[in-house]
Amino acid sequence: MPVNFIPTATDYLRILPEIIMTVAGTLIMLIEGWLGSEKKKTNLSVLTFIAFAAALVAAVVANGSPGLSYSNMFIVDGFATFFRVLVIVVGILSLFSATQYLKREHAESSEYYALLLFSVTGQCIMATANELIMIFIGLEISSIATYILAGYLRDDKRNNEAALKYFLLGSFATAFLLYGIAWIYGTTGSTNLDTIRIALSTPGSGRSAILAGTSAALMFVGFAFKVSAAPFQIWAPDVYQGAPAPVTLFMSAGPKAVAFAVFLRVFMTAFAPITNRWEPFVWSSALLTMIVGNFAALMQTNIKRLLAYSSIAHAGYVMVAIAAHNQIGIAAAMFYLAAYALMNIGAFAVITHFSRQGEKFVNIEDLAGLGWKQPVTAGLFAIFLLSLIGVPLTGGFFGKFYIFRAAIDANLVWLAVLGMLNSAVAAYYYLRVLVVMYMNEPGEATLSVQPVSAGIRATLWLTAAGTLVLGIFPSVLLNFANSSSVLVK
Amino acid sequence: MTLLSAVIFLPLLAFLIVMALPKENHNAIRMFSLIASIAIFIISLGLIGPVFSATPGKFAIETNQSWIQTPAIDYHIGLDGISLWLVMLSTLLTPLCVLVSWKSIDKHIKQFFAFLLLLEFGLVGVFCALDLFLFFVFWEVSLVPMYFLIGIWGHDRRIYSAVKFFLYTMAGSALMLIAMLYLYNQAGTFDYTRILAGSQSGAIGLSSSEQLYLFLGFFIAFAIKVPLFPLHTWLPDAHVEAPTAGSVMLASVMLKMGTYGLLRFCVPLFPNAARQSAGWIAILAIIGIVYGALVAMVQPNMKKLVAYSSVSHLGFVVLGIFSFTQQSFDGAVYQMLAHGISTGALFLIVGFLYERRHSLDISAYGGVATPAPWLSTAFMITMLASIGLPMLCNFIGEYLVLQGTSLAYFRWTVFAALGSILAACYMLWLYQRAFFGQASEDLTHHMPDLNAREYAIIVPLILLMLWMGTYTQSFLPPISASNAVLLGPIDARREIHVRAAPAHIGPPQISPPRTLAGLNQELNNAR
Lengths: 489, 527
Description:
The complex is a heterodimer of chains A (489) and B (527). Chain A has 489 residues and is an all-alpha fold. Chain A has one domain. Chain A contains 21 helices and two strands. A two-stranded antiparallel sheet of chain A has the order 1-2. Chain B is mainly alpha-helical and 527 residues long. Chain B contains 22 helices and two strands. Chain B has a two-stranded antiparallel sheet with strand order 1-2. In chain B, β1 and β2 form a beta hairpin. In chain B, α1 (3-20) runs antiparallel to α2, α7 packs antiparallel against α8 (158-187) and α16 runs parallel beside α20. The two termini of chain B are 40 Å apart.
């Protein structure tokens, strides 16, 4: 096959979102030097927003000309577009909720915005990568930016702890991933997902199936770490608790969603021929993740930590969809990740707002009586919590519904039963937050609560509207997810 | 927009309007809630005509619109003789609950009335849904407002009770959802009428173990809601801690979601499994009847006493459903309604007493009849209805259940009838302790008789008790017609079952099959 090294206009169009965000990120760091006074730094967030908005448009436009680019390293298809749009929206929402936080902590500078843009760029690359090295590069761009963001307030002890833990464990996990890539390259002679799939489905590749299985196991470790699936979830609670609230908001939605996207793409295309080898890993990890996440969350007093464990449990539900390894499972996982991103961002936005300077108030008990002090904020928070529980007419419910339907379709009825019972356990700890908000008398933290900033308010309303729309008219998203869930073409 | 859709969605609209009202304007909120709920009740009266004139076995005022394409979920609603009265019960009791909460709710008034209306939305929807998924949605939607009603406006142990209530129901409905999904995968649809037709024609072939598991998935969710012994432990807590309006809605309507589910889904969709398990379930129901009555007898707390009496009364309903005769089905549905009216009224009057004395202990009362004769009269009529005195509503239901059960399994009837006797014991004893005897000075001082608002609440219910107890023809014909349809598959398959599995699974012996025509004949004789 002749390789053309000169990119065409279509090639550029297909990676336009990444180009826009990279250029904007670099520009923002340069521009800061020219901005004299502190006040003008608000302009940086406006610039970031414009970059995100442009990237969002570019991602949608790029979907109009789907196909492979750059020697089959990139692929633009419905699946890629779905996750590109998702991570860019997550970027926008975390930008909204961060502006006031940064001012409050006196930490507004260009790095934050640039890192946010770079991280989202890395995630977009992951979403569109059709090749293991590309995936690795995207993962590194995204992760390194996120490591720094986790320790963004460098005078804060907890921030430093979070960043260091995240970095050390993350690098370790990435090494596993890289090792897995090396094995599969050695086995099949390629890092391209389609080529690997064809090589593995050739009959008579008995020995290479074992090698490929090992490679799948190694890569599974890497991905399981990134999505915080048990038994590789240990880092998540500490990092989520220690990182600045808007960064936690970002981490729990964007990187996680796209890590699942890559997980799906690699395992459902390249490793599709050896499904029976990796499926037991995935369902046992799914079960363990749900149990560990939900039962550990029962005992938490810190709300960030509670949501960290809840985030682990939700990763478990998505793993159930992957274990189902069928097309409706992929669509279900896509829907779930979108719904989860919305409701989780909403919940963390409330915490960002409520925690005050230095994140003083992050215990569940601090929220006492918020329902009567700030009824609108608490009401929206209640919607997010009900969605996390999985009450009908919210996005979270349909997400779970589709996932367990996929599991039953794949004859994993017992896994679906255990998963649903798990979600009944989960109801307890979310209800505790509702109890505190509505059924306890207001305490010091609630009485001194400040008005909600415009950015947070926008985030809350947008995510709540999204959660309800996904809960009442899920077809708007599900039809797209269904049509783009064919990964092997 | 059909009339039925209007009755479902108007409460939601009213909920949104109340949420938009300024929270300081208490009277506007109360007045609006009252007017809205009365208006909804009046509109719902229009549902009676179409159901009475509908062809037996068909749903009236059906709407079937696509809601979600994949998996196909429809907004499919309709009414038959059973759901009609349960919808009417919900719309009737909501304005009464607004009235009873007029003064007794003194904090967060706006949210209280809003949640009450949201609850009505869920309850009405549950009884109209003819799509399994839609049913599940309404089932869960009704859970959230009730959780808040108990948790925010309840008594001392309200939070514990509210969480217990929520988790119990969640655990049950988790299994139900899985069963629904499995059924969907087998049947390719969530539509109740199509699944029913498919399972009767044999188009949906479920193996007997599949049927049993699916049956259990649904059954456990419904049994928790009913509640059937031994899954009843959430009920006394929830009832005692809930505010009056919450107790009323819970006892009168929410518990019926369970029995309605058994009758509508469990029995007709999985007839073989229902028949297999009927023996065990009947035993649990009878234990519930006797146990509930015995425990009610020793309660020092009035609300708890009424709560346990509900366990006992609902046992009759479950027994009636799992006897599979026309009379027992009719009796079960009639008992659902009668229990809704009489127990609702009991909770309302206990609420009146609580407003006066701020105590639920029976020992805090005594001699109430002297200062408040009309209140005592109202309580007496209601209590007698609850015992099952002839001429009052519960009698018809209990009688039909016992009659129907005796046709099928005579031994069950003997034990179940004990419950009626015990009911007289605990209720009369309660009445004697609370209302008769010497009234203390303090009590006389704090015990004014019924006021106009309270008359407006209780008189309609008492009239209804009399009406339902004396002229059943106003209510029973559509119920019987719908029951005959539900009974069809289970009667038809009875012979097959007896032939296919001679070794019975439940302890009681299965009597020889009866034909539908024969049963109708017996019913006519009984009337």
